[in-house]
């Protein structure tokens, strides 16, 4: 009879943190019995749909000693992996298994200084955090990088766009599509073979967006038509793989004052990422991409046109940063240190 796998208790706050963890969970899943706990009730439905990343799913027990002890006694984890800022005192102080802090960053404060010493291993986003954690008395601290950069490669989809220049605008909000249309109209005079894929942040707006581009040969992605000039994405989960076909990309929520959406997905394929002035939700990602020559911030319609024009005409070989390789190195760093502990 095959020996049962050792258990790992993995805890995350909600959907965003879980998605960051997915590439790591995918590597651990074949070798360990993954028991995933979460805090946010809103995450339950989404997490229940994510098969293949964990074996059991539970809400985090109430953070009181009897509850966390009982849960640990039932699942008998080899280690407890905590994602980012989920620093629950009873979970950390009244469980026996070694605790590992993933994608950690230091903000300071009494609770952080006290609870950080409960971890047997801390894997941080940046080298700058290593000394701060060590100043708290934490003994085993390593910097592997931001786990957000270790994206899970999407399933490839086919697209008929040969011999075309292609802009992919993702996660757009109301008002941004009109801006994109104005810039697209100007660029069409420069590039007669230019096409556009646009994916509204909320799929329910797809018909509204298609109406904005009615002067062009607009089609919905779900119709799978071969001939189109503007393709409006009305399907879920297909934006990420569509970025692979782009010559240049735009990420929405950056002109609509939302604060920005995922800048890393187009960069994963080495595509230049253009965004507007409002990036407060993705500031660290914006800074990283700008340093690597993949991120381009613009303030208005005129700058957006000029940057798109420049990127559509320059040689792609100038952007030689290998995002996939970078992310894989981060993931392997996390795995190597985890394997030493579990």
Outline the structure in words.
With 342 residues, the chain is of the alpha/beta class. It folds into 2 domains: 7-152 and 328-341, 3-Deoxy-D-manno-octulosonic-acid transferase, N-terminal domain (Rossmann fold), CATH 3.40.50; 165-322, 3-Layer(aba) Sandwich (Rossmann fold). It is built from 13 helices and 14 strands. Helix 5 (110-116) links the parallel strand 5 and strand 6 (121-124). Helix 7 (176-190) crosses helix 12 (301-313).
Q: What would the keywords be for this entry?
A:
single chain; Rossmann fold; 342 residues; 13 helices; seven-stranded parallel β-sheet; alpha/beta; 36% helix
Secondary structure blueprint with pairings:
Elements: E1 7-12, H1 15-28, E2 33-38, H2 44-48, E3 56-59, H3 65-75, E4 77-83, H4 89-93, E5 99-104, H5 110-116, E6 121-124, H6 128-135, E7 141-143, E8 165-172, H7 176-190, E9 194-200, H8 206-212, E10 218-220, E11 230-232, H9 239-242, E12 248-251, H10 264-268, E13 273-275, H11 283-291, E14 295-297, H12 301-313, H13 323-341
Helix pairs in contact: 7-12
Task: Describe what is shown at a glance.
This protein is of the alpha/beta class. The protein is built from 13 helices and 14 strands.
Largest sheet: 7 strands, parallel
Which structural class fits the helix and strand makeup?
Answer: alpha/beta
**Unreliable residue runs:** none
Strand content bin: 15-25%
Number of domains: 2
């Amino acid at each position: 009879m095959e020996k049962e796998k050792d258990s790992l208790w993995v805890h995350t706050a909600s959907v965003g943190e879980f998605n960051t963890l997915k590439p790591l969970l995918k590597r651990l899943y074949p070798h360990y019995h993954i028991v995933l706990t979460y805090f946010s009730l809103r995450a339950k439905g989404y997490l229940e749909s994510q098969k293949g990343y964990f074996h059991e799913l539970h809400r985090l027990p109430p953070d009181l000693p009897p509850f966390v002890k009982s849960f640990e006694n039932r699942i008998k984890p080899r280690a407890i992996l905590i994602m980012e800022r989920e620093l629950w005192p009873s979970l950390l102080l009244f469980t026996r298994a070694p605790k590992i802090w993933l994608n950690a960053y230091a903000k300071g404060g009494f609770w952080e200084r006290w609870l950080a010493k409960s971890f047997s291993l801390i894997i941080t986003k940046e080298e700058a955090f290593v000394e701060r954690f060590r100043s708290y008395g934490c003994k085993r601290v390593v910097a592997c990088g931001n786990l957000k950069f270790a994206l899970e490669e999407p399933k490839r989809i086919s697209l008929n766009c040969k011999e075309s220049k292609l802009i992919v605008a993702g996660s757009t909000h109301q008002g941004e599509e009109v801006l994109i249309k104005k810039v697209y109209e100007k660029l069409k005079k420069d590039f007669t073979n230019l096409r556009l894929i646009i994916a509204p942040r909320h799929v329910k707006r797809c018909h509204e967006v298609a109406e904005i581009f009615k002067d062009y040969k607009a089609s919905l992605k779900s119709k799978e038509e071969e001939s189109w000039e503007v393709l409006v994405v009305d399907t879920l989960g297909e934006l990420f793989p569509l970025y692979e076909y782009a010559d240049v990309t735009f990420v929405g929520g950056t002109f609509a004052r939302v604060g920005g959406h995922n800048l890393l997905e187009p960069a994963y394929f080495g595509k230049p990422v253009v965004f507007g002035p409002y990036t407060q939700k993705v500031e660290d990602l914006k800074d990283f991409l700008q340093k690597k020559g993949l991120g381009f911030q613009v303030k208005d319609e005129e700058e957006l046109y000029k940057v798109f024009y420049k990127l559509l005409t320059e040689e792609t070989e100038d952007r030689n940063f290998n995002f996939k390789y970078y992310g894989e190195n981060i993931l392997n760093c996390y795995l190597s240190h985890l394997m030493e502990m579990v």
